[in-house]
Design a protein that fits this description.
- By secondary structure, this protein is mostly helical.
- It has helices at residues 8-19, 24-31, 35-45, 50-92.
- It is rod-shaped.
- It holds the Pfam family HTH_Tnp_1.
- This is Transposase.
């Protein structure tokens, strides 16, 4: 995933500037953004604090790790069952 120019803290600060009576056109020009980017940020991060957003990012990372762990264990379990099935068929002969 592409790393953006702005950190989450910077995005929240820009959104807070708009909430404190800055005009959107001024903010967009000052920070070199497009209107679409600003409104996308506003819909995604609007009303959230930096602490909340960092917690969400931490939870996403932990979730990704746990999903990978489940996938690895599932693959290992499947391989073990396959080996046991093959050994059982050899013993029956």
């Amino acid at each position: 995933m592409k790393k953006g120019r702005f950190s989450v803290a910077q995005i929240v600060a820009i959104l807070q500037q708009q909430a404190s009576s800055w005009m959107v056109t001024q903010l967009v020009r000052k920070h070199g953004l497009s209107n679409a980017t600003f409104y996308t940020w506003k819909s995604k991060y609007g009303g959230a604090s930096v602490a909340e957003l960092t917690r969400v990012e931490h939870l996403k990372e932990e979730n990704r790790y746990l999903k990978q762990m489940v996938a690895d264990l599932s693959l290992q379990n499947q391989a073990t069952k396959e080996i046991l099935r093959k050994k059982a068929s050899v013993l029956r002969r």
